[in-house]
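Can anyone check this?
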Amino acid sequence: MPAAYSPIVRTFCQLRIGLMNALGVARHEVRPSTSLDALLPIGVRREVWAQLRHQGLRLPALEDSERDRRREPWLVVGGTGLLTLYLQTWYAPFFAIPLMLVVSWAGRHRAVHFPLGLRTVGELVIYATPFSEHRDSGYRWTRNEIALKVRMSVAESAGRPLEEIQPDTKLADL
């Protein structure tokens, strides 16, 4: 039987190597407590994120800002309204779905925010470590890792930032 290994440490090492290669930072600059905002400034974030994903890391997609997420539906409604007025036909509102897809696609280049409001390299590592690797490794999770992974799952399901989900948060309140 192979020796047990920590999939979280494995993911962290892969992420650290990827960041060292992409950013040219020293090994000691990438720690679990390192701020993602400090490590990946917005100007290079999309490029570095794409490089890390290309290297095989299972990173989630970057997200739009809250302002952009609130603005997109109004762009679709306004565009559909203008199209309806221009075409003056009853079927013009059916263009809303393709218009929504175009607006969403066009805005993807502005997606530069970390999913769930992740703040540190350690949080990103736990988020990016797949469950299947835990099951196959023989590694036993610590209580803190379990608590963080559950908070991430609840935050993702509820569409809330991670900081809003605390151990004492009631599901009924979400």
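Reply from J.R.: I decoded it. The chain has a mean pLDDT of 81.
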